[in-house]
Amino acid sequence: MTQLTCQNLAVGYEGRAVLENLNFSVCPGDYLCIVGENGSGKSTLMKTILGLQPPVRGKVLTGDGLRKNEIGYLPQQTPVQRDFPASVREIVLSGCQGRCGGRPFYSKGEKQLAQTAMERMQVAALAKRCYRTLSGGQQQRVLLARALCAAQNMLLLDEPVSGLDPKVTGEMYGLIQRLNREDGVTILMISHDITATLTYASHILHLGRRVFFGTKADYLREFPQAWKGGEAL
Ligand SMILES: Nc1ncnc2c1ncn2[C@@H]1O[C@H](COP(=O)(O)OP(=O)(O)OP(=O)(O)O)[C@@H](O)[C@H]1O
């Protein structure tokens, strides 16, 4: 059973394709890394998958009980977002907004969901702290907890470790791996980190002059030089 299928998909702007002929599926529990050089269309594909912009051609289909508004999203952080003047708890709770249906307060269940997400991401002790006083790694864990409030089945992460030091990067990857392995959360991750991709991914989508989609083993068979950190495609 597939959760997400891109069928003859072309993505781009104002009818002009940046990427075309994309055909791939994601199953529950997959860990898909989307790699490719700058400008290859990773963010455009992600926005199309999230339904934030229409496909130029083709379709994005969801299945296995997953609806398009049930994909949790961790955007790439901008400096303005890093300075956001709200408490950790408020930010995590705001992930529940899609569930509120216009209601101007959070229910007991939503507050519990936020508490559980903060515990899973090890930020419960920071609940009352102001977001902008946190370290980069703590901020990313808060945003992951927020994404978990929005969706439990699939997370889309746009370069979740950019700007983090190696130790914090390792911790972040560890938390994401636990969500995937222990909680069965499907992961779609845009990454520039080929070593991490080859360590954690079950599947790889490489965007570029040639598009590749397949398992990590297929990728390594086709592009053995990827291990050496060389240009893969
Ligand atoms: N709003 C827009 N309107 C028109 N073209 C755009 C728009 N946003 C991006 N593009 C173009 O689409 C192409 C793909 O951009 P995109 O941001 O998806 O690439 P990316 O792989 O995510 O790059 P990066 O790794 O630098 O984040 C680029 O040529 C870019 O200039």
Automatic annotation (TrEMBL):
UniProt-listed Pfam families: ABC_tran
Domain of life: Bacteria
CDD domains in the cross-refs: ABC_Metallic_Cations
Keywords per UniProt: ATP-binding, Nucleotide-binding, Transport
Domain ABC transporter: start-end pairs: 4-232
GO MF terms, alphabetically ordered: ATP binding; ATP hydrolysis activity
Family: Belongs to the ABC transporter superfamily.
Protein name: ABC transporter ATP-binding protein
Source organism (scientific name): Flintibacter faecis
